[in-house]
Amino acid sequence: MLATSNRNSVGAAAERGAGSPGQPLGGSNGGTVYHVKPGPAGKLIDLDRFSLWYGQSQALFDVTMSVERGLVTALIGPSGCGKSTLLRSLNRMNDLIDGLRISGLIRFDEGEIYAPDIDVIGLRKRMGMVFQKPNPFPMSIADNVAYPLRVDGMRDRHTIEERVERALKQSALWDEVKDRLKASALGLSGGQQQRLCIARAIAADPEVLLMDEPCSALDPIATARIEELIDHLRGQYTIVIVTHNMQQAARVSDNTAFMYLGKLIEYGDTERIFTNPINQQTSDYVTGRFG
């Protein structure tokens, strides 16, 4: 069962405007450094001193950050630093893990996502998820994309077909599969399967697209296609991507958050993170001195 100890208001860190460009923040994380590139439409997600435990083991420590609406935010750091845990906390994918406990706040579009009365299924519909390994369902290409629509109660065939076509075009897959929509999705290449999973995630019109190392199982050519797709989707969706590939983070993201041992070390404009970081740990990581 999920245990929480949320405060009733946004904490002092958020009141000070945590996450605003250039503003350092003290705390148990040793002082996160912020120089965030603001989005044209403001913030969509706010985390205020968010901590998470798996049983007695603490995985996240007082993470305070905002995610800008319409931009691409990358989470980087060595294995085990908490970046995937943080990503999965945004749509409560961690809830099924026994012994999970959290403190702090995550606000999404001004609503507290760990509030007792939150509609978790509704939350996940608003935050599409793409996993590390492509996971198409054993059904046709068209039925894969239509699946979330039918689960949501949509029955009009014409509307479903239009939404499937739109999602496949948005995921840059339509031209490759339009003549075999009834063929099994399992016959697609790995890169095509991942783009199909992205089409399935966006078919239901989410506001946020969460991507957990979506290219780690793909070859360089397929990886390049996914990166082109992320660039194409920029602005249409708010994208948060976990990646172990620092070059990929530099290529695709607007803001980058560097995490280490469950703490947010530096969060800001991607170009600065990779060319002139403020924190020495960030500099050591992006220049390959550790990790």
In short:
This protein has 291 residues and is an alpha/beta fold. It has helices at 12-15, 83-90, 120-126, 141-151, 157-170, 174-177, 190-202, 220-233, 246-252, 270-275, 280-286, and strands spanning 3-4, 24-25, 32-35, 43-54, 57-68, 72-76, 100-108, 111-112, 127-130, 208-212, 238-242, 255-260, 263-269.
Distinctive features:
291 residues, alpha/beta, Rossmann fold, eight-stranded mixed sheet, five-stranded mixed sheet, 11 helices, 13 strands, 33% helix, 26% strand, globular
Q: Given the C-alpha coordinates, what overall shape results?
A: globular
Cα-based radius of gyration, to the nearest Å: 19 Å
Counting structural domains, the number is: 1
> Mean pLDDT score, rounded?
90
Number of helices: 11
CATH class: Alpha Beta
| Helix and strand sequence | EHEEEEEHEEHEHHHHEHEHEEHH
Note the beta-strand portion. Answer: 25-35%
Number of strands: 13
Low-confidence stretches: 6-29
Question: What structural class do you assign from the helix and strand content?
Answer: alpha/beta
Summarize the biggest pleated sheet.
8 strands, mixed
| Named CATH topology | Rossmann fold
Distance between the termini: 34 Å
Helicity, as a percent range: 25-40%
